[in-house]
Each structure stands twice: as C-alpha cells, then as structure tokens.
C-alpha cells in the first residue's frame, strides 16, 4: 500500500508551483484521498471494487492524475476571467475537454464525471478569490457560477445521473452546486470536525463525513441503479452506523461492513456522495495547506 501511494503522490510533488498549479494539485490530492479511503460502502477504495466491475483503485488514480491539467486550467480561468458569464462558458468548455481527457485515459469508463463538475466549480471559485478560502465563501462563489447558464452546453447529456434527477425529481449534482454545496458545508465538514475533536482517527473521521452525506443525500447514482428502495436502504444504513458511534467504534464498524455488503448485493454505489466527500476533502485541505495567495495580475479573458 505504501508503494502504491508513493507512486501516486510523486507526480503531485512535481506540480507547478504557481497559484493555479497549486490549486490543481490540491484537487487531485483530494480525489486520491477519497478513492484511497477504506472501507467505503459500495464504493471503490484501495481494498475493493465496491459495487463496480469496471472500476478499481488504480484506474481511479490514473483518471485523477490525467485530470490534473484540467483542474489547473479551471483554476487559471478563475484567476483570469472576471465577468461571470464569460467565466461560466470558459470553464464549461474546459470541463468538457476534461471529460474527454478522462475517457481517453480510462478507455471509455466514467470515473470522475461528477467530480469534474463539483470540484471544477470549487477550484474555480477558490482561485477566483484566493485571499478568501473559507469553505462557505468558496461554496457561495461556486454556486453563483453554477447558477449561470452556459450557452454552449448540451441541453441533455443522456447521462444516468441526469436521467435519475429528472425521473425522481431530485436536485442532483446541479442542485447541490447551485445551492452552495449544502451537503459539503453543512453536513460533511461539520461531521469531519466533530469526529476529529472527539479523538477519532483521520480515517474514521473521513468515513463519518461520507456517512453523514449518505444519510440524507438523494444520490442520483444510487437512484439510477436501484431506485428509491435502494436509496432508502443506503440512507438508513448510514444513519445506523452514525447512531452506533460511527466508524471509530466496534458497533459502528460492524454496521459499516453490513452496509457495504448490502450495497454490493444491490449493485449500487453512492458515487454522488463520494464526489461530495472529495469536495469536502479539497475544502478541508485548503484550510491547512492553502496555496500562496499572492494574487497575480488579472485580465478579462
């Protein structure tokens, strides 16, 4: 495991030292932290494929590294492009190019489509005002960008998450972003802080943050695969783990294993919650390892 992690972190250490490069490296670091975290119920991690047959830890890491340039470009757009309508269209184009880069790296497997959207908005918003990296401030700026329409975006993508959002009348990834990522700012980050303050390990604290999101999120990845019954099982199972002390307790760990087994049986994976955990870890990283905030000259791109 240590050799695997060293292999992944080496390219991050060689990242550009400029502001956009720093932000891009932080996003990729958060994505790798998310996929490495274990044991995550129904999700790919360093020990398991979860409920997936076409994904594994190495492929997810390969995808994250392939997207580093995309996140650097998104941060650069946030720095350079001040008018919001122009910024929205610029990052939309960068995001679509990033999705193509991801699909090329994974030979057509969707590994990080949702993360490109969520973390793309957040890294843009962070880089736009690098002197104000409070999580709620970044999320509010990201929401402002997300609420602007992109004239060049396809009206319908046909993606399963989008179809589930429409079929089940839930907010989905778009709703989360436009509302300012409430499951990140109001749910996951506070749970992460609470777990750390009571002495939980960092692994347990991050798992508890994920479970807190799973307990209430209308995850379109789960809805697309298993419908409302699977979503209800996921939410109740996550609440049960937290009610029994979370991932740091023996009882909580037993419940966590049972939830993992059940989600694998149902062939559902809470990918939306995983994306929001990665977003949480990114914002958390910025509180500890904020890039140098000497603001470069800006231009109207």
UniProtKB/TrEMBL annotation:
Query: What domain of life?
Result: Bacteria
The record lists the membrane-crossing segments as none
- Does the keyword Secreted feature in the UniProt annotation? no
The positions making up the signal sequence are none
E.C. no: 2.4.2.52
**Xref: InterPro entries:** CitG, TriPribosyl-deP-CoA_syn
Which biological process annotations from GO are given for this protein? prosthetic group biosynthetic process
Catalytic reaction list? 3'-dephospho-CoA + ATP = 2'-(5''-triphospho-alpha-D-ribosyl)-3'-dephospho-CoA + adenine
Q: Which GO terms describe its molecular function?
A: ATP binding; triphosphoribosyl-dephospho-CoA synthase activity
Keywords, in A-Z order: ATP-binding, Nucleotide-binding, Transferase
Q: Which HAMAP family match?
A: MdcB
Task: Please give the function described in this protein's UniProt entry.
Answer: Involved in the formation of 2-(5''-phosphoribosyl)-3'-dephosphocoenzyme-A, the prosthetic group of the acyl-carrier protein of the malonate decarboxylase.
Give the record's family classification.
Belongs to the CitG/MdcB family.
Name of the featured protein: Probable 2-(5''-triphosphoribosyl)-3'-dephosphocoenzyme-A synthase
């Amino acid at each position: 495991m240590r050799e695997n992690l060293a292999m992944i972190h080496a390219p991050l250490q060689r990242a550009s030292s400029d502001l956009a490069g720093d932000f891009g490296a932080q996003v990729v670091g958060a994505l790798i932290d998310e996929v490495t975290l274990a044991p995550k119920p129904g999700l790919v991690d360093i020990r398991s494929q979860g409920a997936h047959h076409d994904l594994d830890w190495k492929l997810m890491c390969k995808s994250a590294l392939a997207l580093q340039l995309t996140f650097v470009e998104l941060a650069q757009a946030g720095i350079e492009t001040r008018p919001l309508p122009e910024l929205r269209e610029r990052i939309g184009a960068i995001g679509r190019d990033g999705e193509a880069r991801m699909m090329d790296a994974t030979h057509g497997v969707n590994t990080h489509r949702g993360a490109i959207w969520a973390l793309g908005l957040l890294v843009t918003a962070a880089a736009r005002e690098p002197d104000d990296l409070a999580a709620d401030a970044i999320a509010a700026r990201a929401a402002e960008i997300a609420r602007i329409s992109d004239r060049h975006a396809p009206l319908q993508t046909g993606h399963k998450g989008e179809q589930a959002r429409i079929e089940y009348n839930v907010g989905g990834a778009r709703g989360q972003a436009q509302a300012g990522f409430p499951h990140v700012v109001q749910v996951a980050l506070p749970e992460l802080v609470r777990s750390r303050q009571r002495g939980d390990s960092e692994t347990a604290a991050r798992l508890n943050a994920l479970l807190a999101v799973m307990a209430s999120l209308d995850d379109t990845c789960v809805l697309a695969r298993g419908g409302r019954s699977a979503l209800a099982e996921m939410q109740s199972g996550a609440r049960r783990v937290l009610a029994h002390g979370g991932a740091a307790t023996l009882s909580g760990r037993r419940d966590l294993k049972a939830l993992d087994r059940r989600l694998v049986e149902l062939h559902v994976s809470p990918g939306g919650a995983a994306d929001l955990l990665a977003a949480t870890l990114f914002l958390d990283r910025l509180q500890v390892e904020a890039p140098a905030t000497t603001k470069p000259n800006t231009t109207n791109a």
